[in-house]
Amino acid sequence: MAVDAPIRTSVIICGSGSAGLCAATWLARCGIDCKVLEKRSGPMRVGQADGVQCRTVEVFESFGLSEEMLREAYHVIEVAFWNADGMGGVKRTRTAADTELGLTHMPHVILNQARLNGLLLEAMERFAALKVDYGYETKDIQVDTDHAEDPEAYPVRVVAERDGKEEVFEAKYVLVSLTLVECQGHVVDAR
Questions:
Q1: In this model, does residue 191 exceed pLDDT 50?
Q2: What would the pLDDT profile of 40-95 be if each residue is shown by its tens digit?
Q3: Phi then psi for 129, rounded to 5 degrees?
Q4: CA–CA distance, 75 with 140 (Å, rounded to integer)
Q5: What is the DSSP string of the chain?
Q6: What is the torsion angle, in degrees rounded to the nearest 10, for the CA atoms of residue 104, residue 106, residue 110 and residue 111?
Q7: Residues 149, 70: Cα–Cα separation, whole Å
Q8: Between the CA of residue 2 and those of 5, 12, 143, 171, what are the distances in Å?
Q9: According to the model, what pLDDT value does residue 183 have?
Q10: Which of 168, 47, 175 is nearest to 119 (CA)?
Q11: Domains, in order of start, for the chain
Q12: Confidence of residue 184 (pLDDT cuts 50, 70, 90)
């Protein structure tokens, strides 16, 4: 039985959460080839964390995506503090600006995480025709430390499974989400 040759790319990103997609968008924007492997069968449909801090909005600005994000998002202008009113209810006791004056030119916003990820997916496609490869479960990651310093080498070997078939990928670098750091009972040091 013939074994498929490993698929080579400069960077492999294991996971297409917000951090993985931000990294992939930067790589696509800079023209660096990468492959994004995701266990889910498709893009996120429902957000898990919908608050977007000011500095994250600045990152989206660097991608050229902040205008669309700000147009769709709820802007958090102030926060309210509530306390017991002494009669079994609550009352608002004070408000404060959400963001310290002069901290940034961008607001703190609320936008569904699935939509944020959608903006990143659209940008990846636009910058470099980069798409996420869905349905891949990362099984093993090995780093050949003897060749890690060689700029021509592909010292990272990633084994991933899709539809019951294992595939091997080789890369110069790998980014791994924290939930994937333990592969087959071994903690992976992917530095």
A1: no
A2: 999 999 888 888 999 999 999 998 999 999 999 999 999 999 999 999 999 999 99
A3: 55, 30
A4: 42
A5: -PPPPPEEEEEEEE--SHHHHHHHHHHHHTT--EEEEESSSSS--S-S--EE-HHHHHHHHHTT-HHHHHHHSEEE-EEEEEEE-SSSSEEEEEEEESS-TTS-SS-EEE--HHHHHHHHHHHHHHHH---EEETPEEEEEEE-TTTTT-TT---EEEEEEETTEEEEEEEEEEEE-GGGSEETTEE----
A6: -140
A7: 42
A8: 9, 24, 25, 22
A9: 47
A10: 47
A11: 7-47+114-187 (3.50.50.60), 51-111 (no CATH)
A12: very low
Q: What residue has token string 């802007």?
A: 75
| Residue 83 β-bridge partners | 91
